[in-house]
Amino acid sequence: MLSHKHQDILLMRWALFSVTGIILIVVLYSVGVTPAWAQDLKEALAPAPFLLGPETPALSPGTGFLLCIILTLALVYDLLLIRGALRKTAVLAAFLLLLACFTPVLGLWGVFFNPVPCLLSAGCAGILAILWPQPPPDQPISEPPPAHE
């Protein structure tokens, strides 16, 4: 069972990494980078087999942003609970690959989805969760580190 202090640290890291990823997509959207990438991606999906034209319905920006928030929060929470950088990296890579494959699948159904904001948000937050140093497994987190005199 996790100690109270460990739960607080986990919650703080979860919030910090998730908010960092979400702020990244908000900044990129407000600068105009992600809409430009969305237009380029939609043009790339215009030839066969996708045949997405300019009138193809797309997920609204609000729905896409909500999806990015949910996916980022879930990914960071999972990565913080996993031990080992290699395992975390494998989970992040698999998550990003599946998310990138979501666009062609929806394109075959005639719906456009821009995965770039979700990939950037989840990727940035996931890298932070992997690179943040973890305490050694043999040292309990509830005890302070030994003081040297």
Summarize the entry for a quick read.
The chain is mainly alpha-helical. Helices cover 68% and strands 0% of the residues.
Summarize the structure in words.
The chain is an all-alpha fold and 149 residues long. It is built from 5 helices and no strands. The chain has helices at 4-31, 33-44, 61-81, 85-108, 116-131. α1 runs antiparallel to α3 and α4 runs antiparallel to α5. The protein is elongated, with a radius of gyration of 19 Å. The two termini are 33 Å apart. The relative contact order is 0.19. The model has no long low-confidence stretch (mean pLDDT 83).
The SS-based structural class is mainly alpha
Strand content: under 5%
Helix-strand sequence: HHHHH
Average pLDDT score: 83
Q: Sheet bearing the most strands, described? A: none
Instruction: State the oligomer.
Output: single chain
Rg, alpha carbons: 19 Å
